[in-house]
Amino acid sequence: MSEAYFPVGPGLGPEENFLSLDDILMSQEKLPGRAESALPRLAFALGQGAGPGDSLPEGSKLEIPLWLAKGLHDSKRRIISVELPKVYKEAWRTVFSADANVVDLHKMGPYYYGFGSQLLNFDNTENPQIAQSILQASTFISRFRRIMDSSQNAYNEDTSALVARLDELERALFRAGQKGLNDFQCWEKGQASQITASSLAQNYGKRKFTEVDV
Asked: According to CATH, what is the number of the domain 85-188?
């Protein structure tokens, strides 16, 4: 029986995948910013005006969703400037580098990695440090080891408290680890009829075949 919906993974980079529900939700996350020029008829849309015709004066502080910030941001015209959310600033990067495993990442932002990657679209002198923090050992790699270890050692246990501190990408990794363990347990007990290739491997094979065919 075919599924009604096939989940689409997030873009995991500076560009979103708009077929991904995770990326759609992530693009609604708010960014602090500032109007570098007057914004005609946008005050109401940004929750700061009484009517649809109100304008935002230059210098106004903003809290705007990521998708709108990307649309308005232009380094040449200077329509808006974007500030770093506090969880990506140096103080928090220091906490992550000390021990990323103690941080409740879901509380800090349910799409911490995806949202952090999107920040690289904006001009910021701290972009190299942000990329280093979210992708290197200070955060992702050190947490990844613990997540996968936990997913393999919490079989048939209540894991709600364990996953509550993970961001959405980490929760997906945890579920993938548990599914892999469960599939192996079923195969080992003779409860699986056959071992099949993962969807990632199948899609990769189809893509390579298409490239050769072309």
From this structure: 1.20.58.2050
